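Design review, sub-item: ligand-bound model
Attendees: FS, YL, KQ
YL presented the inputs for the NAP complex:
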Amino acid sequence: MEHAIADPLGQGRSSILITGASGQLGRALLEEFSSDDVTALTHADWDVTRPPPPLEVPDVVLHTAAWTDVDGAEGDPQGAAAVNVGGTSHVAELGAPLVYYSSDYVFDGRKREPYVESDAPNPQSAYGRSKAHGEAAAGERAWIVRSSGLFGPTGVNFVRTMLRLGAERDQVGVADDQRMSPTYVAHLARATRELLERPFGIWHVAADGDCTWAEFAESIFEDAGLDCRVRRITTRELGRPAPRPAYSVLRSEKDAPRLPHWRQGLRECLRRLDYPKEGTDP
Ligand SMILES: NC(=O)c1ccc[n+]([C@@H]2O[C@H](COP(=O)([O-])OP(=O)(O)OC[C@H]3O[C@@H](n4cnc5c(N)ncnc54)[C@H](OP(=O)(O)O)[C@@H]3O)[C@@H](O)[C@H]2O)c1
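KQ shared the predicted structure:
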C-alpha cells in the first residue's frame, strides 16, 4: 500500500497546504504543523468552488474547507454540494495526496454500537450526503478522516455556544437523544500527523468515550464553573431543519490513531479559553 508523503514523521520539513485555514480545525492544524512548510489558504484566498489558483504542488493537502452549516444545507443542498463535493474535486485536481475530513453524519444513526470504517454510509441530511459524495470526490490518493462533534477554542462550536448561553441564562434546553463522541480539534490535528504514516483509505478518528449533547453540556458547565442547569429535551423539541443521527459513535476497526477521551479534550479546550474563571468553583 502506498504511503504518500516522503517524510511523514517530520524529520525534515514537508510542504503542507491547508484549505479553510481560518476554520476551527484549520487553525488547529496550523499549530500542529507549524514546524513544516505550511501554506495556509482561507476562504478569501481560495474559494474551493473555483478551480485551484496557480500553486506549487505540495507534499500533502489538509483539506478542511467545507460547508459546515448542517441546517443551512437543507435549504441550499446545491450550495453545500458545490463546496463539499465540487470543492473537493478541485482540491484533488492539484494532484497531491490529501486528507479529506468527513463526518459521522454520513451514517443514518440506526446502529447501537460504534460505526466502523466498513459500515455502509446512509446519510439522512443534505449536509451528510454532500460529505459522503465529497469522500468519493477526494479520489484514490486520500485519507478520508471521519470525525464527530468538533470543538475548539475558536470559531462556531457547541462548547463556545454553551459557554455564552451558560453565562447569560440559568437553564438551557439541550438534546439528550443524539449520542456521539465530541472531538477536540487539537487532538484531531495531532492524529492527522500520525495518520500520514498510514495507508490511504477511510479512517474513523474521534475522541474516546461518548455522550449525548445534554451530557456534554452538563460537563461544559461543570468544568467551566458555570451555574447553568441543562434541561434534557428531544431533537424533535428542538425542531431543527436537518435530521441528525441518533447514534453516531465512531470507532476504528483498523489501526487508526487513538484520541484521548472527550472530557480531556474539553478540559484542554476550556484551559485555552481561560476557564474556569477566577472566583468560580468547578
Ligand atoms: N464541526 C463539526 O462538528 C465537524 C464534525 C465532523 C466533521 N467535520 C468536518 O471537518 C472539517 C472542518 O470543520 P470545521 O469544524 O473546522 O469547520 P469550520 O470551522 O466551519 O471551518 C470551515 C472553513 O471552510 C471555509 N469555507 C467555507 N466555504 C468555503 C469555500 N467555498 N472555499 C474555501 N473555504 C470555504 C470557511 O470559511 P468562512 O467561514 O470564511 O466561510 C471556514 O474557514 C469540515 O470538512 C467538516 O465537514 C466537522
